[in-house]
Amino acid sequence: MDASSPRYLTMEELNKTALDQFVYQPVGRDMIAYLAEVAHNVIACDSTLMPPAPVDARSNLPTPPR
Predict the structure, then answer these.
(1) Which of 1, 35, 45, 51 is the most buried (most CB within 10 A)?
(2) Which residues span the domain enclosing 36?
């Protein structure tokens, strides 16, 4: 490809550039409200589906030999 030919960005390069620009955008209250609403509608928050509380790890350690 010679110097006069246009160079096209790959999809990966376009995505990286878009993400680099996006992460530096200011976050407004409307964006936070939107993300909270979307997350609420996607993530199941049923307390009966929660995993059991962790058992104290120290009580499960083997005792040293005597």
Answers:
(1) 35
(2) 11-48
* 26 contacts 18 by C-beta, under 8 angstroms: no
- Is 56 inside any structural domain? no
If you write DSSP's letter for every residue of 16-27 in order, what string do you get? HHHHHHHTTSPP
- 37 within some domain: yes
pLDDT confidence of residue 64: 77
28 assigned to some structural domain = yes
Buried b (16+ CB within 10 A) or exposed e, 55-64: eeeeeeeeee
Q: What's the structural domain count of the chain?
A: 1
pTM for this prediction: 0.36
Domain contains 6:
no
Residue 1 in contact with residue 7, Cβ under 8 Å? yes
pLDDT at 30 over 90: yes
